[in-house]
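Contributing: when you submit paired examples, paste them exactly as shown. First protein:
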Amino acid sequence: MDIYKTFDKATANTSAYCLVTESGDNFGRVIFKHGNSGNVRCFLQIWGYEMQLGQAGGYGYDKHSASFQVAAMKLKRRLHDELASVKLTVAREYNLNLDSVELVERMERERINQTIQQFLTPDAIDKCEGIGWRRACEDCGLQVFNVI
């Protein structure tokens, strides 16, 4: 089998996108896998965070945006849980007083908030329904490049 047929088979029913910040930094990736029954799975990864999966099925609506929205909400919850975990870990491992724990928590919250502010605000996620996932990303200042 020639290389092009192999590639076409490997990427069949798949769409992949790269998310890039206005400054040109690679921010993440979005991959959609289209099932035979009409369902769509969205794999969303913002670099530095665990990949999330969103799924949508049925007919008569934008399943790409719906599955993207599910994955983005999972990522947002994951970041919230990560922040709580950092606070407990720091307090236990270093036996720090409350002021020190709050300082570390503020630093971690700032790191996470940079991601949330740029990409995972409730407005941005909610916009997916009305304008589509790609436009919602672009409205957050991200460029979306189709790579497959």
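Second protein:
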Amino acid sequence: MPIKKLKIISLTFTFSFAIILILLHFLDKTVVYNTGVVSNFALAGFGWLFFISLVILSIGKVLLAKMVRAVGQKSRLSNWLYYTILFSATTNFLIGVFPTGTGSQVTIIAALHLIFAILSFVATGVFLSLFVFFNRHKNKPGIFFKGSVAVLYLICLLAFPFFPSSFIPVGERILIGLLTTGILLNMALVD
């Protein structure tokens, strides 16, 4: 498949993820943005739509990995980037397969969900950072902005455990917004 076609399809999938996630905030009033984490959408009436959004994001990332493989020379950096994006896509899918739990009781499924969510956030931070080096030879204006998004995302990710518990739902949404912006920027700059 040509790179341009891959880029358009991948951008469409990732942008659709963002639109569905925003739409869920209006459709499902049981998850309040400042008190409930995004994963709680899986437990509410529109859990199926939350799962679909994660599948869409995973497909978008797989297509991004395919673009990296098609564009990138067979370097170590290109391979690391390719496999990190695929790992991130896999963890996104598994977040949907293992929904979060309810209440204070921790189940195996809820623990798996949390582990995959953390792995997904970390893998996305790594591949956003690797992308800065992957495209370093291009003199496009978006490279600096993309690098800034990656750095800001990593700072927020490292600071996340130190957020007060009342800020975690909002902080999670900030991280998701930054990672979606970073992914979209990276996709747009691959050619």
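If you have annotations for the second protein, write them as plain sentences, like these:
The longest helix spans residues 108-134.
The chain has one domain: 3-189.
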